[in-house]
Amino acid sequence: MTATSENLSMVETPGVAWRKQIRFALIGALSTAFIALAGMPVGLDGRSIIQPVLSMGFLSLLWVPFVLATIAGSEVVLEGMTARTRDSKDLLAGGIVGLGSAGGLVLLMVLIQNFNLRDPLVNWSPQLLNLLSFNRSLAVGGLLWVLLGLILGVFGGAMHVLPKKLCSRIRTVVLSVFAVSVLETFLTDLLEGFRLEVLTDFVYYKRGGLEVGGALLVAALALLIPLLVGTRIRDVKKQVVDLPAEERKRVNLILLAVSAALLLVLPFFLGKIANELLANVGLFVLLALGLNVVVGLAGILDLGYVAFFAVGGYTTAVLTSPNSPGFSPELPWPIALIVVVVLTGIVGLFIGAPVIRMRGDYLAIVTLGFGEIIRLLFLSDWLSGWFGGAQGITNIPGVDVGIGTVKGTDPRSVFLLVLVFCAIAIYVSWRLENSRLGRAWMAIREDEDVAEAMGVNTTNTKLMAFVVGAVLASFSGAIFSAKVGSIFPTSFLMLVSIIILVVVIVGGMGNIAGVIVGALVLIGVLGGPKQPGLLQEFSQFKLLIYGALLVWMMLKRPEGLVPNVRRTRELHQDEFLQDAWLKGEIDTGDQEELS
Amino acid sequence: MHLGGLRCNSTTVTLGTDVATTHDAKRISRVLWVDRFLTFIRLAFVVVIAVGLFAFIAQQIDPQNPLARWLNPDATGLTAPQFKGLLVTGLAQGAMYGLIALGYSMVYGVLGFINFAHGEVFMAGAMSGMITSNKLADAGLWEDAFLFCLAFVVITSILISTAVAVIMERIAYRPLRGAPRLIPLITSIGVSFFLQNVSVVLLGPGAKSYPSLPTWLSQKRSLLGFEIEGTKLVVLLTAAVSMAGLWFLVERTKTGKAMRAVAEDKEIAALMGIDVNRTIVTTFAVGGAMAGVAGILWGILFRSVIHTTGFLPGIKAFSAAVVGGIGNLGGAMAGGLSLGAAEATAPLVLLEPLGVDGVSQLRDAVAFAVLIFVLLVRPSGLFGERLSEDDRA
Amino acid sequence: MLQITDLSVTFGGLHALKDLQFEVDEGEIVSVIGPNGAGKTTFFNMISGMVTPTAGDIVFEGESLLGLDPSQVTERGIARTFQNVRLFANMTILENVMVAQHCRTDQRVFGALFQTQAFKAEEDAIRKYGEEVLSFFGSRLVGYRLDQPASVLSYANRRRLEIARAMATRPRLLLLDEPVAGMNPRESAELTELIGRLRSEWGFTIVMIEHDMSVVRDVSDRVVVLDHGETIAQGPYSQVANDPKVIEAYLGRPVGSEQTDEEVRP
Questions:
Q1: Going edge to edge, which strands form the sheet with C55-60?
Q2: Full domain range(s) for residue C45
Q3: CA–CA distance, C251 with C238 (Å, rounded to integer)
Q4: Cα–Cα dist C138/C127, whole Å
Q5: A369: nearest CB among B34, B194, B368
Q6: Which residues, numbered 364 to 383 in chain B, qualify as contacts with chain A under a Cβ-Cβ cut-off of 8 Å?
Q7: Which chains touch C (3+ CB pairs under 8 A)?
């Protein structure tokens, strides 16, 4: 640091930006009113978080003042400045945002009472009004909301005033209670497998949601566990990082082996619901890993990705089902899979070759067009002699693996099969990413012209990405076909492509671990295009959330929610400061070198 | 952080473009297998079109002759009124695509990215038209003062569509100016998806219908030897008027000049004292207004609207913009008309004689095929694209 | 080594280059200078296959480069850097030089998936050669920096990495587009010396576009002056610097007397 920047660091950031607070208050008002009109409070009321205190419906409104107040209160501390000390003014600022959010709701309640706009707005109902006013009069309900908004807003503002440690504790507690409640189906299923029903019976209410006592227990655990193990985990982590590379590799290998073994054993302790859920997640992990190669590594935005899924599914169906209308060899699944892989690879080449030279955005639309064309062809009467048109192909047998048959009625076996293929896909992505081909993909993603000038044959390399992506999707299609037992064109809407894209983006483009976590969270909790997730009540809102998530991610975190370990590992803060060109300073590294 | 995106605007205006226009530059390349394959696909397209046309002509001469029966044993042939009817339907829809395409084309010209969500702006126009017209019908005004009502409906839906487009620009796209190309594109897909589902949660998932139109409007009239339904006539006329208005705006007013300048080079335009942000907003607004008009036209033509209404017409309109040459406004309208005509006639003129069953199901596939064919044969569109050097790379 | 005859290119009726004659012999360092807009970068783009000339021929080691893709040109042994540094910003420094060896290596999917001996050996070789190339610039680009993304580098180091990346393609002819632009005098003096060593130690033939006359004077055997797409002078620096036509092209000022003038770029 030079002398000037030390002087600069005395400068504090200016005080509360009141204008910003008011803007956020307005955003809050619009958000709550929108959420109410979207029908979330009514639609989600059936799902309780903590019985009988809090339901998902109310939570859909209550997070708004808190989160918005927190966001409105966060300030960017510019290089060389110090953050100012936060004071009661920040609480007031949070309160304003909270009040605004509540205000929107109160205004909506007044409007609902006095006007009837039920005709275009389907959720404009007395039911909504009743719910919002807590089954009491409008005045009482309104007052309650104002109070709630104020409290939550102040609380949100307080997240900047309270000590950092306390805030993170609060966050852990809140998030754990929420997570335990969301994971209810899964956890009960899991604990039943371990014969620990006692535990779930205590924590969960009979008809869904946490008991108050259970919630308190979870909160207490969330507080205590980090206190007990928190530092120890960090120590162990540090020890591992400090190990020499060889040993670190071995530790990682052991960890990998243990988690793989756990994963393989897990299905046997899970019930039908959880296995089914995880099998669905696995199918999307496969798809997302494939799209990750295309979008994340090679930077090609393929919006017709579902086409490969469809080709994989349909080819399997035609080859294995006795009901296939045109050509019905009734091959066993493993042999069919070989044909599927080869055929999808060829389709990948066929779709890839014409589009590969196009500009990125044209390519997106044209692949989308191909995706639709393929679906329309499967749907058409013209080819119904082969693919059954709208009736699809039914009676697809399961996968015969010697010890038993893998099919949809036995989700455990499907999950195991999916696990195997996910492992293959992860291995393939990981190895390819760290190879000559993977580097070429990344170079193309970064700057295609320069990659070409550095000797990368961009056409072939991009086609390769298409083919690898297609093959991974075809795995998913083949398993999907065997799992569901029948196949229809409606399973392959363009929607599927978009949902896979959201998974990849949320997880982080080019980040294998991120993509897996993204699929787990999104498909597992919210659900896939047709597959329900843990929050079944969300099914009517999940597409809305996917869309909003995609926009928000692009605006705020285009690199994805899960940090890319490989890229961030070495990024120490002080290294960033070396960007002398941007800061107008002399490169310190060079100075040492030359003097 | 993104060095790759830091494309220095070279000091020399025309010569120093370091960014090679790899896609446009002609190559006497030593042929790769991909190129051979592309040539094969182009040829295949041409052969299908030629054989289809040939079989069509044969079938028109006599459905019983062996050439017609060769591929399609049930060949019947089209009567002249049938063909004219198809053509008029196609052109009317094409005019609508053209109006939507203008928005794609203008935004692409100015910002260099596909605003995927433009189809949803169109949907918003159609939806708001549905709401206002139904309200007016409930009030009993729709039948009595139809023209007045129509004007009112058009104005509200223009306002709503414009507002949606402008808000969209402000919230989703403005923060992303200068980001790598893929980012705003993905964002616009998200916006599109979001808006569709906003419509679902607010207005419900089902299809909603417009009130019925007065008979004097929907009855057929004959014009220049064509039997045209009044509604289609209205669509064609409205499109022509809107197009003329837009042409005037872009070519004859100061705002239009600013838009053209910004499309050419944002930085230079800013140096010339043009408020770039405002001009971009205007572009979105004008595109939105056109989409609003198109939304009403959709309502008049099909009298039914659902949240996915914007998706296919949106994609087709983008195809129309590409077919006409992106950035080229006249081209967008011409592209829309040709695409509409092609997708209406091609199934019966090309595919049916080839012996394809259920051709009407393949209309959308035909539209996409037209897009692919044009991009393979003439990537800069039929009428040439108008883009700044920057956007072409 | 490289013969260019009657090379012309027009953009929309404007001659970016006109009937250019140009020759480089093995082991030479040739500087191309000229005022802005003289067509220097277009000239490079044409050699590297990014722009196709309208007329003329480019022959490298007896083979015409016309109609080759940029990657094929690189494969034949010509590598370049860019005027406005264009690194793969989100790839690590090592990866930047590793990817540049793409056309010199040939392991494909099979090797990567099954981790064959050949694959491992090739990866090692790529890595080793990459590190060797990077260590040419001292300790700046090696050590802990190897695994950092290129975007954290300082401007001067970005330029260095770009040269390293071009070196990693194992070229015989190196095209440097303003290698010292934006560097301070000390850095550019150091790089001038390195350019000399690129020839003596690595055996590269070098063609360089440069505005900094002190670099041009110190390192080049021959100077070619372009103006409005035409060659107006050729020869050793001392001769070119006194050529009245060149002086005129540079707004009547004697070249070399005000060296810093041209460094300042908008």
A1: C14-24, C2-11, C55-60, C63-64
A2: 2-86+165-263
A3: 19
A4: 17
A5: B368
A6: 364-365, 368-369, 371-372, 375-376, 379
A7: A, B
Q: Which residues of A touch C186 (CB under 8 A)?
A: 594
More confident residue, A28 or A537: A28
Q: Which amino acid is at A285?
A: V
- A549 and B190: CB-CB below 8 Å? yes
Tell if the CB–CB gap between B29 and C85 is shorter than 8 Å. no
In a domain, A169, yes or no: no
| Tens-digit pLDDT profile for residues B142-179 | 888 888 999 999 999 999 999 999 999 999 999 998 88
Residue C254 maps to a domain: yes
Q: What is the pLDDT of residue A565?
A: 52
Chain B CB contacts of C41 under 8 Å are 10, 15-16, 18
Range of the domain at A95: 12-162
Angle subtended at Cα B107 by Cα B101 and Cα B111, rounded to the nearest 5 degrees: 150
Say if A123 is an interface residue toward chain B (CB within 8 Å): yes
Taking CB atoms and an 8 Å cut-off, how many pairs form between chains A and C? 143
pLDDT in the model for residue B30: 53
What is the average pLDDT value for chain B, to the nearest integer?
Answer: 84
pLDDT averaged over 10-residue windows placed end to end, chain C, 266 residues:
89 81 91 86 90 90 89 93 91 94 90 92 95 91 86 89 94 93 89 93 93 89 88 89 82 50 40
Position A164 pLDDT exceeds 90: no
Mutate to test the interface with B, among C8, C10, C15, C42 (most CBs of B within 10 A): C42
* pLDDT for the residue numbered A573: 36
Q: What's the confidence (pLDDT) of residue A227? A: 80
How does pLDDT run across B273-283, given as a tens digit for each residue? 899 999 999 99
User: Is A593 part of any domain?
Assistant: no
| Boundary residue ending a domain (A470, A494, A521) | A521
Is position A343 within any domain? yes
Query: C201 to chain B nearest CA, in Å?
Result: 30
Residue A498 touches partner B, C-beta closer than 8 Å:
yes
Residue C53 sits in a domain whose CATH number is 3.40.50.300
Q: Are strands C222-227 and C29-33 parallel, antiparallel or unpaired?
A: parallel
DSSP tag of C218: H
Q: Could you give the CA distance from residue B137 to residue B124 in angstroms, rounded to a whole number?
A: 20
Structure tokens, A367: 């692949």
- Residue B144 CB contacts under 8 Å (≥ 6 apart), including other chains: none
B379/A549 Cβ within 8 A: no
User: Does residue C75 lie within any of the structural domains?
Assistant: yes
pLDDT tens across B204-248, in order? 888 999 998 888 887 777 777 777 888 898 899 999 999 999 999
B181/A361 CB distance under 8 A: yes
Residue C201 CA from chain centroid, whole number:
17
Q: Could you tell me if A356 and A472 lie in one domain?
A: yes
Question: In this predicted model, what pLDDT tens digit does every residue of A295-334 receive, in sequence order?
Answer: 999 999 999 999 999 999 999 999 999 988 888 888 999 9
DSSP structure class, residue A540 = G
Q: Compute the distance between CA of residue A2 and CA of residue B33 in angstroms, rounded to an integer.
A: 58
B-chain residues near A357 (CB < 8 A): 23, 34
User: Is A170 part of any domain?
Assistant: no
Is pLDDT above 60 for A493?
A: yes
* Chains touching B by CB (3 or more pairs below 8 Å): A, C
Q: What domain count does chain C have?
A: 1
A383 and A517 in a common domain: yes
Restricting to A residues 447-506, those with a Cβ less than 8 Å away from any Cβ of C are: 447, 449-458, 464, 468
Work out the percent of chain B whose per-residue pLDDT is above 90: 43
Contact assignment for A299 to B182 by CB distance below 8 Å:
yes
Interchain contact, C138 vs A593, CB within 8 Å: yes
Q: Is residue C172 part of a domain?
A: yes
pLDDT tens-digit profile of C163-221? Answer: 999 999 999 999 999 999 888 889 999 999 999 999 999 999 999 999 888 899 989 99
How many domains is chain A built from? 2
Q: Which among A127, A162, A197 is the end of a domain? A: A162
Residue C176 makes CB contacts below 8 A (sequence gap 6+) with: C80, C81, C163, C166, C195, C206, C207, C208, C209, C210
Residues of C with CB below 8 A from B26's CB? Answer: 52
Looking at residue B144, what is its pLDDT?
82
Question: Tokens 């390195």 — which residue?
Answer: C194
Among chain C residues, CA nearest to B32: C69
